């Protein structure tokens, strides 16, 4: 037995873990049912032995698991009145059977009271269950309770720390996504595994108390995952009263996970429990993958009711692939329903692409997919409702743009940059959006940006850098020249689109104003001319006041770096995020942007681009990917500290 500062750490339990003390660690024992961590909250009040509160607590805990109809491991109840009322929550790991769950919670009530003999509020965690009680309301409030929090980590480091961290992040992202996909399920739990590049398998579990909404559950889990971001240990767990995560290099849960690391589902959604068929060689694997995401599927009648039969009063907008409607589900959740046009260019392939892609993505600056409907000829996608419409609705309106001060605009630029960094480098696959534009950036009620519309997105493996297509899809003005002219797309194509958006946000001008395209100066030409002539003040939206000159000029500089004609000269998103976050970064001098109209002899006629200004057109033919770039890799070469180019 090891003693540290009076706290006991017996070898049977705690030598495996090094405790990162966030809140006071009390004890850890080796018995089958004792806590790996517990917290007695002295600041929440005390009770005396045999008092009314004490008696109510004993009664409540002794009957907490008496409801035998509960088979999903979550128990919550209250007993008593007024100041002596006691509330309790018990949660078992999602793979635990009913008998073992009840046994774990019944033992924990005895142990927790022994360790916390007179505290009105306490919480304790076993390996497979959690118990909390309090004199305040602790369930059904939708509140994400992040305290107390404890992070326990394995004492051993991973062999390849960087690869391990990336693979663990991908696994946790997939698991969080599957918990979110469970909606209002009684079991907000997912477990699975992923085998890494060094053939080491990482196993993981994430879980929330079912009283949290999907959004609050995801927020809670995101906070827990963030704790582990820079940790290269082989195992760890983050515990809070409303959610927890755990990862190890050995399997510590009961159901058999997917061996590939894909479609990581809770037991109730496991393919082993479904009448799904395996994929054949006829190219229908996507159908099977959608079937395993059955929890995402909503029926058409539900969506008809939610949108008042797709009434015009609920119509949020019309895009190239169909209309988007506001709706409300029976549980009160607000949604946005994208109903694809029956003659839309987006066919089954693009539809499945968007479903499968969005189902795996989790980032605060990406719109969240809630579900889909595939019924007869109807194809619908259901997203979280983002209340403030899209960026173009504000930035190009002479009145509404006043609602976006410089602070809001800079926050939007940073948010979009971080979302693209996630897509390009931090998610499990490298993802190229291919249709990034102002109308595909939605704004929530706090004007936080969320990238939407992944119907044209392409997935690359981690060693792939570019792809090619014979037909072009996208929106004129946002397309990189190598994509518009040669069908070559890469992360640098998205970087180009991002640069156009940055310059639109700073200037309040569209990439090309309405009117005769041949007679109206294009935005990139306008910005470059003023940048060269040192009249950058002309670029800035005149409606802006109280701006940060350094931030504005830095954004213009970043925008021009992004829209350079040679894709190798454009920075990647990690460099862009660093440029936006740090004033100590020396930025290279931008070269002349790519122009599509009038100024270049090899400019592309509008008739050759299969898109419109506000709508996108699909492409499905002859696309390929390669791991070898056609040009040199992007790198920052000679750089200057002057604000303007020489």
TrEMBL record:
Residues 310-584 form the Protein kinase domain. It comes from the Eukaryota. Residues 606-615 have a biased composition (Polar residues). The keyword rRNA processing does not apply. Keywords: ATP-binding, Glycoprotein, Kinase, Membrane, Nucleotide-binding, Receptor, Repeat, Serine/threonine-protein kinase, Signal, Transferase, Transmembrane, Transmembrane helix. InterPro entries: GNK2 (IPR002902), GNK2_sf (IPR038408), Kinase-like_dom_sf (IPR011009), Prot_kinase_dom (IPR000719), Protein_kinase_ATP_BS (IPR017441), Ser/Thr_kinase_AS (IPR008271). Its main location: membrane. Residues 263-286, 606-646 are annotated as: Disordered. The keyword Transmembrane helix applies. Residues 1-30 form the signal peptide. ATP binds at residue 338. Residues 264-282, 616-628 have a biased composition (Low complexity). It is found in: Membrane. SMART domains: S_TKc. PANTHER family: CYSTEINE-RICH RECEPTOR-LIKE PROTEIN KINASE 29, RECEPTOR-LIKE SERINE/THREONINE-PROTEIN KINASE SD1-8. This is Cysteine-rich receptor-like protein kinase 10.
């Amino acid at each position: 037995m090891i003693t540290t500062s009076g706290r006991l750490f017996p070898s049977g339990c705690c030598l495996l873990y090094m405790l990162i003390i966030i809140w006071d660690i009390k004890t850890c024992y080796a018995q089958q049912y004792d806590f790996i961590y517990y917290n007695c909250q002295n600041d929440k009040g005390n009770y005396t032995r045999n008092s009314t509160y004490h008696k109510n607590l004993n009664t409540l805990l002794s009957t907490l698991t008496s409801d035998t109809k509960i088979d999903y491991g979550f128990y919550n109840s209250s007993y008593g009145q007024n100041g002596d009322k006691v509330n309790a929550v018990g949660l078992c790991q999602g793979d635990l059977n009913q008998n073992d769950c009840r046994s774990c919670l019944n033992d924990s009530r005895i142990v927790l009271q022994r360790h916390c003999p007179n505290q009105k509020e306490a919480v304790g965690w076993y390996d497979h269950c959690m118990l909390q009680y309090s004199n305040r309301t602790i369930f059904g409030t939708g509140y994400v309770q992040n305290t107390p929090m404890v992070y326990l980590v394995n004492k051993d480091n991973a062999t390849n720390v960087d690869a391990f961290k990336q693979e663990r992040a991908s696994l946790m992202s997939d698991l969080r996504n599957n918990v979110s996909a469970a909606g209002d399920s009684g079991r907000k739990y997912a477990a699975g595994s992923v085998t890494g590049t060094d053939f080491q398998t990482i196993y993981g579990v994430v879980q929330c108390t079912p009283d949290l909404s999907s959004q609050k559950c995801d927020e809670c889990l995101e906070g827990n995952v963030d704790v582990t971001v820079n940790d290269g240990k082989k195992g760890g767990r983050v515990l809070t009263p409303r959610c927890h995560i755990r990862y190890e290099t050995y399997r510590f849960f009961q159901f058999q996970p997917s061996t590939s690391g894909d479609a990581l589902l809770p037991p109730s959604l496991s393919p082993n429990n479904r009448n799904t068929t395996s994929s054949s060689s006829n190219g229908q694997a996507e159908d099977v993958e959608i079937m395993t995401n059955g929890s995402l599927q909503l029926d058409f009648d539900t969506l008809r009711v939610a949108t008042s039969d797709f009434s015009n009063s609920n119509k949020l907008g019309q895009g190239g692939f169909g209309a988007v409607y506001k709706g409300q589900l029976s549980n009160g959740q607000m949604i946005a329903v994208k109903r694809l046009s029956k003659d839309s260019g987006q066919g089954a392939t693009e539809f499945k692409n968007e479903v499968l892609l969005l189902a795996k993505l989790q980032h605060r600056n990406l719109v969240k997919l809630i579900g889909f409907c595939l019924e007869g000829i109807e194809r619908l996608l259901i997203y979280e409702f983002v209340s403030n419409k899209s960026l173009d609705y504000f930035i190009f309106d002479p009145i509404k743009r006043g609602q976006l001060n410089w602070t809001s605009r800079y926050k939007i630029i940073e948010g979009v940059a971080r979302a693209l960094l996630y897509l390009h480098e931090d998610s499990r696959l490298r993802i190229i959006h291919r249709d990034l534009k102002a109308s595909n950036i939605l704004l929530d009620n706090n004007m936080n940006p969320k990238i939407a519309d992944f119907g044209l997105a392409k997935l690359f493996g981690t060693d792939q850098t570019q792809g090619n297509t014979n037909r072009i899809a996208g929106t004129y003005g946002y397309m990189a020249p190598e994509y518009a002219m040669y069908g070559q797309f890469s992360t640098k194509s998205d970087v180009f689109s991002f640069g156009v958006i940055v310059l639109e946000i700073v200037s309040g001008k569209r990439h090309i104003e309405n009117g005769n395209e041949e007679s109206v100066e294009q935005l990139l030409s306008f910005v470059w001319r003023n940048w060269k002539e040192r009249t950058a003040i002309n670029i800035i939206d005149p409606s802006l006041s109280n701006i940060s000159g350094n931030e504005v000029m830095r954004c213009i500089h970043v925008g021009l770096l992004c829209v350079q004609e040679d894709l190798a000269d454009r920075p990647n998103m990690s460099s862009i995020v660093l440029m936006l976050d740090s004033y100590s970064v020396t930025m290279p001098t931008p070269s002349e942007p790519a122009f599509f109209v009038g100024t270049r002899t090899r400019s592309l006629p509008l008739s050759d681009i299969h898109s419109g200004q506000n709508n996108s057109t699909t492409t499905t033919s002859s696309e390929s990917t390669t791991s070898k770039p056609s040009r040199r890799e992007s790198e920052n070469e000679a750089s200057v500290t002057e604000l303007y180019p020489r």
